[in-house]
Amino acid sequence: MKSMQLVLFIIILAAGAVALYFSLNKKGTSEEMNTATYSASQEPRIGYVELQVSDLARSLIFYEELIGFTVIEKDERTATLTADGVVPQLILREEESYVPRPVRTTGLYHFAILVPTRQDLALSLVHLADSGYPLQGASDHQYSEALYLSDPDDNGIEIYTDRNSNEWQRDNNGGYVGATKQLVLEGLLAEIKDAEWTGLPSGTRIGHIHLQASDLKASEHFYVETLGLDIVAKNAHMLFVSKDAYHHHIGMNTWSGQGLPKPPEHSLGLKQFTLHFTQEEYDRALAKLEQSAYSYRADNHEMTVTDPSGNSILIFVKE
């Protein structure tokens, strides 16, 4: 990498870290938190994310050449991408009827690509810098280190790696304590050694999804009391929930305001995301849904349900 390019890139990242568009100074409440210890050997809970895009060819250039996914299935309007060549992790769908998502609506804040090691994150950082693609931030969240950018349709993306779970900090109520500190780039870049970027490594997964919500109380009732996820962090404008004591599988915020409307159905952005449940978790959630007013379709192993902010979720039983 040319020295001037690296200097300019570090300046851009530093500015992005200072003006980063969210803060994770999370404060727990008196509510009971899941205080178990997360194990990195847990199976992924987020399956694939499906996005509605304006130009499939343009999006494929971005997600293949810049992010590092590979295509495993493609037709004229749809493409399925993966990091390991087998498991679908991202579906891109183009339709002529799609329109830009209005500002100040619910929907995707970002989806997060979890890479296995700090070296993998460093390689992504250098590859993006060499490509000249703009980043929006580079942050240390205490439990993870992360890069932020947006795709050509302004869908937010996080690329991150987790610290060992025994380093994750909790507050007095058992909730995870996060932060948004500037990522120390020198230490991260030192991880590269002689390695070269060859795309996303096979151990990559979709680690979490972050949503702009309309009402956090309604979201909590849906995700916690109905679907059975655990609260792991919460304040007046943010709610993080997960399974298996992870720092978050689904994040929600109202930083753009309370009571946001959902976008039109044919808006660019999030079409749906998938969750993996055990059979016991699935049966329990289905029983709760049957007693609720939430819209859903279900059989014994798969259900589609819409959250209070209008986000569609496909829940599978993980065998």
From TrEMBL:
Pfam families: Glyoxalase. InterPro entries: Glyas_Bleomycin-R_OHBP_Dase (IPR029068), Glyas_Fos-R_dOase_dom (IPR004360), VOC_core (IPR037523). Residues 45-162, 205-318 form the VOC domain. This is Glyoxalase. It comes from Paenibacillus sambharensis.
